[in-house]
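Below is a filled-in request sheet from our internal design queue. Each sheet records the structural input a requester submitted and the sequence that came back. We keep these sheets so that new team members can see what a complete request looks like end to end.

REQUESTER: design group, bay 2
PRIORITY: normal
MODE: inverse folding
CHAIN LENGTH: 98
BACKBONE (tokenized):
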């Protein structure tokens, strides 16, 4: 199953995710990089973003039944966010050039 999610955050900055659960890949925003999904179950999608210097590391969880998500910053300057996600048709991943 492939789909997009638009997530409205408590911080007021919406996030757009793209998912393809077949090969278990995802991206967000402008989709400049595609990452593997950490874990996907009938209930939860678990994701992580790792920055080169680990300062930008985030762990994200999306509840597939309620649409709620949480994001926890695990790099320097810990923080969190969350909100509500809404499904959209899959908009695809960028085409790889090589």
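RETURNED SEQUENCE:
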């Amino acid at each position: 199953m492939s789909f997009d999610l638009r997530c409205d955050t408590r911080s007021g900055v919406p996030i757009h995710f793209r998912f393809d659960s077949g090969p278990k890949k995802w991206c967000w925003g402008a989709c400049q990089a595609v990452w593997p999904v950490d874990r996907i179950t009938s209930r939860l999608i678990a994701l992580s973003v790792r920055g080169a210097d680990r300062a930008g590391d985030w762990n994200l969880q999306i509840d597939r039944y309620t649409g709620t998500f949480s994001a926890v910053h695990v790099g320097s300057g810990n923080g969190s966010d969350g909100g509500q996600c809404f499904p959209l048709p899959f908009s695809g991943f960028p085409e790889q050039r090589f």
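SHEET NOTES:
- The beta strands are 2-9, 15-20, 25-28, 35-36, 39-40, 44-49, 58-63, 68-73, 79-88.
- The longest strand covers residues 79-88.
FILED BY: M.R.
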